C-alpha cells in the first residue's frame, strides 16, 4: 500500500484490524502490548539503555502508549508514510515525550545514530520486498552503535495468521515473509547477530498453556515472530 491508501483506511484501521484478529480471542491492545514487552525484555537482556526509541511505521499509534510505559524516561519517535495516520496518532498520544515524523523521499527524517531501539510492528509485509534492504539499512543508519532492532512480523507458516491477513482489507496487498528469510535479508545490511524468535502459539482459549511458549521460540509455527539484531 502507498501512503494515499493508508490515508484512506486510517480512520477505520482499528475496527478493521479488530475484526481480522477476532478469531484469536484477543484485543488489539494485547498484540501491541506483548510486542513492546518483548522489545523491553530484549533491550534489558542486551544491556541497552533506551533513551530514544523509534516506532517505524507507527500508523495510528497503537504501540505508542505501551512504549511510553515500557520506557518511561525515553523519548518516543513515531514515523509513518501516512499523514492522516500520524494526525490520529497525535490526537491519541497525550504525551510530551512523543515526536512524530512523516516519511518522505525514501528516507527517515532522523540523524545518523540517534536511536537506541528501532522498533517496527508488522510493517515490512506492506513494503515491496525489493525495498526491504533499503529500509533495513535506513533503520541501521539511525540506530546508534550497540543499539537494537526489534522487527515483528506475521508468520506465513501459521494458518490462522494467514486467514487473518486474507480477511483484513488493508492487508490486501500484503506479502508475508518467512522468519529465516527476514534474517537473511538483515545480515547483508549490516545488522549483527540477527535472531528469529517465534511467538503466539496459543489462542486466548488456551492461554493457560502460554508459559510453555518460552520453550517453543525456535519452532516456526507461532502466529508471529520477531527479528532481533544489533547495530
Tell me what the structure shows.
With 231 residues, this protein is α/β, with parallel strands linked by helices. Helix content is 35%, strand content 22%. The chain has helices at 3-9, 13-20, 28-46, 64-70, 83-93, 132-142, 159-167, 179-186, and strands at 52-56, 75-80, 98-102, 115-121, 143-154, 192-199, 224-230. The chain has a 7-stranded mixed sheet with strand order 3-2-1-4-5-7-6, sandwiched between helices. The longest helix has 19 residues, at 28-46. The mean pLDDT is 90.
Low-confidence stretches: none
The major beta sheet can be summarized as: 7 strands, mixed
Whole-angstrom Rg: 16 Å
Beta strand count: 7
Arithmetic mean of pLDDT: 90
Please state the overall shape, judged from the principal axes of the Cα atoms: globular
Query: Biggest sheet: strands side by side, in what order?
Result: 3-2-1-4-5-7-6
Sum this structure up briefly:
The chain has 231 residues and is of the alpha/beta class.
Tag the structure with descriptive keywords.
single chain, alpha/beta, 8 helices, 7 strands, globular
List the helices and strands and how they pair.
Layout: H1 3-9, H2 13-20, H3 28-46, E1 52-56, H4 64-70, E2 75-80, H5 83-93, E3 98-102, E4 115-121, H6 132-142, E5 143-154, H7 159-167, H8 179-186, E6 192-199, E7 224-230
Parallel strand pairs: 1-2, 1-4, 2-3, 4-5
Antiparallel strand pairs: 5-7, 6-7
